[in-house]
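Human: My hope is that you can spare some time for a protein that puzzles me. I am handing you a single protein, as its sequence and its fold in token form. Could you go through the record with me and say what the backbone is doing? Take your time, and here it is.
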Amino acid sequence: MEERHQKPHAIFVFYPLQGHVIPSVHLAIKLAERGFTITVINTHSIHHQTSRAQPDGEDDMFATVRQKGLDIRYTTVPDGLPVGFDRSLNHDQFMATLLHVFSAHVEEAVEKIVRSEPLSRP
């Protein structure tokens, strides 16, 4: 019987506040460079902000490293608030939606990822 070894798969869920995304991106890339499959789950809001900040207008922050052969997948989910909503001025409402709405969307995305991955046998 042929033995198949599946590479490790890490799922990153960015905490959607300034100062958390870039270090998470760097860690995701480092792990991918070491052979991990990485799936990043980001919020629509943070995705919108980072896309606007890209000098070349790139919509996918991992497109360049993916072209170099790294296995980094990227998806976005809603956090429960409109993209234009000012989260910094409405901290309590933002935290409540992260807990009750965003977490449900993340759970759904993770379930979809798990269902799509083949099971590895020891």
Summary: The first strand starts at residue 9 and ends at 13. The mean pLDDT is 88.
